[in-house]
Design brief:
Blueprint lengths: L19 E2 L2 H9 L3 E8 L2 E8 L1 E3 L2 E7 L3 H6 L4 E13 L7 E11 L2 E2 L3 H12 L12 H5 L1 E7 L3 E6 L17 E4 L19 H6 L2
Antiparallel strand pairs: 1-10, 2-3, 2-6, 4-5, 5-9, 6-7, 6-11, 7-10, 8-9
């Protein structure tokens, strides 16, 4: 597979194309690190960009929601654009216009399709959030599953764009007495906080969260 070739015209990165990648392994890693994606679509009320929880199984990204969701209904009728972004640092350069960010991002195009086997996919979502949790909680009942819609979109038409490293200053700015470098950003997991009425000892997947 040639991972330097965009899968379609609309996935071709033109601005700062040297940061682009069409490698499925990188795409999977960016999706797997995400808790939320943003989905842009249009309906009779205008254009929207909605954040929603997401997870990956194989070559598809999954979302879920209520059967009455206006967004979910629209996504099965039209193409959309899904985006995910992780900001890893603020890059401070010696000149104002050379400041940037270190980041990992993905843009996915296509149309969502209905998932029939909701139990398997929603259990996978639970294990994405907290591996081992599904086996310990009350499983969803028929009424709850019946009220829920699960959709998936193929990851075949997508592009990644990433940046990592120090600032790229112009040669004429290198002598300026200005601090330059990276202010790192990272996702931090805090100590789990039990509900006030919870008297159950924290299981391994909870203890592991803050480790």
């Amino acid at each position: 597979m040639n991972t330097s070739v965009p899968p379609s015209a609309r996935t071709q990165v033109k601005r700062a194309a040297n940061y682009a990648s069409y490698d499925p392994a990188l795409l999977h890693a960016i999706v797997d690190a995400a808790w939320v994606c943003h989905i842009a679509f249009t309906d009779a009320h205008g254009t929207h960009c909605i954040p929603t929880a997401c997870w990956r199984i194989g070559e598809h990204l999954y979302i879920h929601g209520s059967n009455g969701s206006r967004m979910l209904k629209s996504l099965m009728e039209q193409d959309c654009c899904v985006t995910i972004t992780h900001v890893d640092g603020i890059v401070l350069a010696r000149s104002a216009f050379n400041h940037t960010m270190n980041y990992r991002s993905a843009v996915i195009y296509g149309r969502f399709a209905l998932v029939e086997d909701k139990r398997v996919t929603l259990e996978a979502f639970m294990d994405h959030l907290a591996p081992g949790r599904q086996a310990q909680v009350r499983a969803g009942n028929d009424k709850e599953y019946a009220a829920t819609t699960v959709l998936r979109i193929a990851l075949t038409e997508a592009a990644c764009k990433t940046r990592n490293g120090p600032p790229n200053d112009d040669a004429e700015d290198m002598g300026l007495a200005v601090w330059a470098g990276v202010l790192p950003l990272s996702e931090a997991r805090g100590t789990p906080v039990p509900a006030a009425e919870c008297t159950v000892e924290a299981p391994e997947h909870v203890r592991r969260w803050g480790a």
